[in-house]
Amino acid sequence: MPQSEFLPRQYALADSKLKTTNVTLQSTDSDFQFTFEALQPGLFRTTFFSPTHPLPPHPSTGPRATAFLTGKFFGNEPTLTSTELQKNIVVGNVTASVTWTDCPMVSIQIAGQEKPIHKDLQFRSYVADSTGVAHYTHYKRDTLHVGLGEKCAPMDLSNRHFTLSATDSFGYDIYRTDPLYKHIPLLINATPEGVVGIFSSSHSRGTYDIGSEIDGLWGHFKVYRQDYGGLEEYLLIGDTIQDVVRMYANLVGHPLLVPRWAFGYIAGGYKYAAMDEPRAADVLYEFAEKLKKHDIPCNALQLSSGYSIAATEPKVRNVFTWNRHRFPDPEEFLAKYHHEGIRIIANIKPYVLAAHPDYQKLVDGKALFTNPRTKQSAVARLWSAGGGESVEGGHIDFTSDLGFKWWFEGVKYLRTAGVEGIWNDNNEYTITDDLWQCSLQHDKDTPIEGVGDHIGIWGRALHTELMGQSSHDALLDLEPNVRPFVLTRSATAGTMRYAASSWGGDNVTTWDSMKGSNSLSLNAGMSLIHCYGHDIGGFEDPQPVPELLLRWIQLGCHSPRFAINCFKTDENDNTIGGVIEPWMYPEITPLIRAAIKRRYEMIPYLYTLMLQSHLKAVPPQRWIVSGYESDPEVWCEALKAGEKQYWLGGSLLVGGVYEPGI
């Protein structure tokens, strides 16, 4: 992409009154303004913006986060020292210094340390770049960088470059593919001296270069580049990673308390709901009988989207509808599964194809995006039925009153029929045009003066968050006293205020995929995605051999979320694929049964961990060194990789088997 950096300079104090908690600077050679504010001990907020680069119009922190946090110093009242071109704010054991001899530069120092733990890059700290901004900071070599939601293994993100976006990364390489499914611009730098988190509240796409780019003049640096708008960033300072995660949770919201049933075995497989002969409902009745025959407990089944593919031409996917050939009586099917103790989690996708019975209604009501070039409803090619098949349709615009409400009512319809969990899938919003327009009707409290209506600045990821809110609120509207369960594939920082669970998407069937998944889980946990797991056995590729399946189930039983789900298409069958079932290899079925029953024995422990997650933002799945970051003996590459072992809670050390023949 073109680069057009502009460095605003010649800053002066915009407010002559000295305040103990903030500084506001105005560039005199441009219209950019810079602010720095102490919110709480260890928590600071920075903004950098102008009329042409407005602040994020819908920050992922939520509308009340900053107001709620500001000024709560818990007895550690800030003190101030200042000179003509520098201001020092001391809160507890942290000193934040802001200088503006040329351009604003922030440094953070912890009491007793010789050097700053965080420092902006001099002469290049905060720059405008075309429609967006960039923030340059010093890169500390030989330390640990984690977070960013969900990034390819290993766990340590140091010396690497990442795209901040979300995409449908079907069949990804767990060590190479980027981006994956989550868009969470939280980067945590852990050192023996302390831990620093940097979090951007924007939903705009961007990139993060974490020391992979080196320049002889500028040295070793990190740079966060944001495609659109101005910058709102939070600095989070603590002694441990958990200190930072807890402060981050106070900004974006603590994880939801997951219903107890969600910790059992969750079954799935695209094939089940895609069958015509025998009918899908009958195939699933048989599956429930086989569970009893093999004495394997099961709490839920992920019902893939085949249930919503039309029974007559055009045989394409129509969200919130039922294929009445595959499921002649959906209510009866759902009631029978509920009677067996198996809850149905129904797959829904945030788009409508042109053949959908409500398509024209949604077009006429401006519930889809608008293409500014045609002034008509924006059209995209979207997944229609079998693997790789597509037809034209449109994405739901969740800033539209009709779009949000239509989705809300669709979820209520499924719940009323007997669906007990909602599976928000394919919600990465992989739209190919930044200029598509949002209606901006739904979120009327959001100030939009001076902000355009295009999806580039509002962010594709905003719709992932609002989709989660609509699904969550619909379930809660029907049953205010029941914890809503929304499973989401994509996520932003704000999505997990509404979604109870997530997973690592469409992985593949290899030993490396199983091993690397631990790294994804640890970074997800440090990014506040706590009820998280992976499709055991692999979503795509050939079936796992018996040994790999057994080892994966044994490992997966010791994770916050335990699910077996797959597609398993091949060149001869891209329609219904295959399934992974616990009894598919009779020679290992007793061992698999024992592992799954062990999982059920652990549910009280897992539930306790999720209660800690909900109340204190402590990840259930934890880095092996969690809490001991100040010990220099732990900083070895094997531990920083996060691949082979982890803590499940504070009492269970988990180490898997990642090679055959062991």
Automatic annotation (TrEMBL):
Presence of keyword Hydrolase: yes
CDD domains: GH31_N
PANTHER family: ALPHA-GLUCOSIDASE, PUTATIVE (AFU_ORTHOLOGUE AFUA_1G06560)-RELATED
Keyword hit for Phosphoprotein: no
Single Gene Ontology BP annotation: carbohydrate metabolic process
Record-given protein name: alpha-glucosidase
EC numbers: 3.2.1.20
UniProt similarity note: Belongs to the glycosyl hydrolase 31 family.
Keywords in alphabetical order: Glycosidase, Hydrolase
Chain ranges of the Glycoside hydrolase family 31 N-terminal domain: 34-209
EC class name: hydrolase
A GO molecular function held by the record: alpha-1,4-glucosidase activity
Domain of life, source organism: Eukaryota
Reaction(s) this enzyme catalyzes, per UniProt: Hydrolysis of terminal, non-reducing (1->4)-linked alpha-D-glucose residues with release of alpha-D-glucose
Glycoside hydrolase family 31 TIM barrel domain segment(s): 255-609
